[in-house]
Amino acid sequence: MISAVWKSRLFDRFSMTGLTVGLIFFALSLTPSLIPRSILIQGAVSGISLLIGYGLGAGFIVLWKFLEIPLIEGRFRSIISTVAITLAAAFAALWLYRASEWQNSVRELMDMEPIQTGSPIAVSLIAALVFLICLAISRSFDLTRMAVQKRMSRIVPARVSLVIAVTIALTVFWLVGNGLIFRSALDGLDNVFRALDEIVDVKIADTDAGREQSKLEWEKLGHAGRNYLALGPTAEQIEAVTSRPAMKPIRVYVGMRSAETAEERAQMALEELIRQGGFDRSVLVIATPTGTGWMDPAAFDTMEYLRGGDVATVGMQYSYLASWLSLVVEPDNGLISARALFDAVYGYWRELPPDERPKLYLFGLSLGAHNSSRSASLLQIMSDPIDGAVWAGPPFVNSIWHAVTDGREEGSPAWLPIVHDGENFRFRNQYSDPPAADDDWGPMRVQYLQYASDPIVFFETTSFLLEPEWMRTPRGRDVSPEFAWYPAVTGVQLLIDMMIATTTKIGHGHVYHPAHYLDSWIEVMGQNGLPRETIDRISETVMKSIEDQAK
Fold it and tell me: Could you tell me the CA-to-CA distances from 308 to 25, 119, 213, 249 in Å, in that order?
């Protein structure tokens, strides 16, 4: 049972300096960032910002006392504290009033309905709850440290006892947080995602669509794999849109439950690709899915329409978890899987006569882009290069993307770089001009598709302390001009933005539009002789299909 002393210290009076700085940080957190926020998300962002500001303010006073610098005492100190916190509270209230205006500055750019109110009371209550819970945890740590230090000081010097106490408290909280809470949560999420992976979509539950395409066990392909195989365009649908003879696209997919190791799954994928005649098509794409194994129909359907179905695509699942969880919990699984699949397919492909084999491309979205870009080494493909790649929404952790972006020409923005006149690498967003049908830009073409409003691409750990380059003028067209950088607060905003990056309208954030995928494929593969009106019709058809599937 918690003692009365413990309780009183756990909920001891607040630092007035901490609250003053905390309220300022709370107010700053109400300003816009990349992604529009719901009431709940805004409350969480504001609560975390309030906590950080409180910690900085309270920590400053602790440091001041430690340095033995005299403090203002008595009534004058009380007056200063009262005035400071009153002004901070008024500042926070004023910015709460403006919150809806700021959120609408983002929503307008993304063609989303404006909100009428920022719900200041609800946001304040949620923020206060988040702040108090986090503060209670922080003070519990400090009380644990004090209890240990008190006992250790009886047998060792004071400073030694402090070091030992901090170490023990950190160890205890780490073991509890990581072992009991974090691991239990991950196990629970893993079970949930595994169960979701076994679900067969009702739209394909009563049909054999997709089954005839593969000799792999249907039930082991996973939820994303079954949907991917079953819901692609048919030859008849492609012909109706393009007014040209078409073939049925070849799609090969191997689920995690299909075999024990990545190498075994890759071999199964290769054998199935050979069986279906994938190497007889004019185009072959090695696709790396997102964390859950999802293959974005906006990317693959558009390519299949563009190529008249004369294309084969092969992909392989490497996780049940969402991309951000997979990156944290099992960061190597995606890379191991992507390399195994590339090695198997590329090894077979390069043994074929050059004039008889298909053009070979890579594709990846989000974490898939990260792993796809690392699946082939330069030394491996130097003597026999692939034809290109399309990587959409590459996450900020991707070192290749960083190297290419950092090497951009002077004057080109960080959110849409120009690299060596676009000889090998090109960047595209939703506002880029349509690609030229006869554009010739090198034997191996790599296209990055990214939106300036995508926090998964543009988050930087340094944004807590430094303003990112992509925030400077000129900005991307779907980034609010009201978005301002503030120390610590902007980092929190962008961190939360990453978690809600797929809540935007399609064509913004981390939700990529078929029309933009289509332009990227055209830039890499060519227009295949299709007029622009047919290209637009393909985009509209795929968009309608995605909307119908979502209903």
Answer: 55, 51, 18, 8
